[in-house]
From TrEMBL:
The species this protein was found in: Dechloromonas agitata
Superkingdom, natural source: Bacteria
Domain HD-GYP positions: 138-336
Any one GO MF annotation of this record: phosphoric diester hydrolase activity
Entry's transmembrane regions: none
Protein name: HD-GYP domain-containing protein
Cited PANTHER family: CYCLIC DI-GMP PHOSPHODIESTERASE PA4108, CYCLIC DI-GMP PHOSPHODIESTERASE PA4108-RELATED
InterPro entries reported for this sequence: DUF3391, HD/PDEase_dom, HD_GYP_dom
UniProt-listed SMART domains: HDc (SM00471)
Amino acid sequence: MIKQIRTDQLQPGMYIHDLNCGWLDHPFVSNAFYVRDRATCDKIVNLGIRELYIDTLKGADVFTARPQAEVNADLERRLQEIARKQPDKAVVVELRDEAARARRLHGEASKLARLVLDDVRLGQPIRIERIDPLVDNMVDSLFRHQDALLPMARLKDLDDYNFEHSVGVAALLIAFGRAMKLPRDDIRQLAIGGLLHDIGKGQVPEAILNKPSRLTDDEYARMQSHVNESLRLIDGVPGVGPIARQVVAEHHERIDGSGYPNRLQGKEISLYGQMAAIVDVYDAITSDKVYNRGMPPTQAMKKLLEWSKHHFDPQLVQTFIRAVGIYPTGALVRLESNRMGVVVEQNEGKLLEPVVRVFYHAGQQHYVPPEIVDLAKVQDRIASCESYEKWKIDPHQWLPA
């Protein structure tokens, strides 16, 4: 049986089923492994992990621990409560009118992110004049209709992950800032911070960033150094204001003090740093990498809720979920009718009933004529969030164009 335990209950002889944290938040080669010694237990506690999951069929048990099914049921109930509290989300243009612009914009953003990181690797300064127009266009697009650009920002090539992750974080921060009703200038600075938040990784050897095996303590420290490297690189760059700087400086801090580089706690972390931490983790755990497959977005939302007990502000997590959706645009879903499709648009006030482009039948395992299904107007409902890779479906083919 899979059970959730506190890390202070972890003992040698247990089998960890899931470390219950993001891949960049620990140095182990896998999230699942047998615990052989006390030093491993201590290392996990020192990483700031508060709760994890053990497999009692493969190792020792904690008889009073909660089964994973019970934890998941509680998280599902909380998601349902959040869905009923969704605020209004204004749409300025129709999705079909914005989709083509958003697709072009995403391509431009990915190319620019690559150029900026290449400049850093070559010792060139950051040219903010190249970033400003892109940020303005991203803000404009997301304000017109965020369901056009956000699914594009989820699409990442394994070889270009570090560039496209920055684009995804920037887009999500714009949507988050809009949901928080922040001033437009503040949202622009959030986006600039998102694009530059990992710029210091240009100073970290790729052999460490993409290492498919366990990081040594020195390698893990080197990887964490990217935050201070990023701050050094943006220091004195015109147009990078205090908000963008806080995004860069604080996106790995956690409200319980377990983050890095400064182990800030609670209100020591700015609002913008707390927002960036939530977005950075969400984009990371939903993305495929050379050493790990991303999880479906709805599962990632549950993880954010679970981790908000210790690492994130619970109210901010709920606002982020409402901003992006329980079944975010671009997610592959399976309906109760056994049909499958991609979420193409959210319905105002109905987070559990988005608009889906249906194109596949899971039971019969073949494609069906594409059809737009508004779940707010039919009896069918979403049964599960699925993996594109598992079903060998190309997401690019089915997103709005």
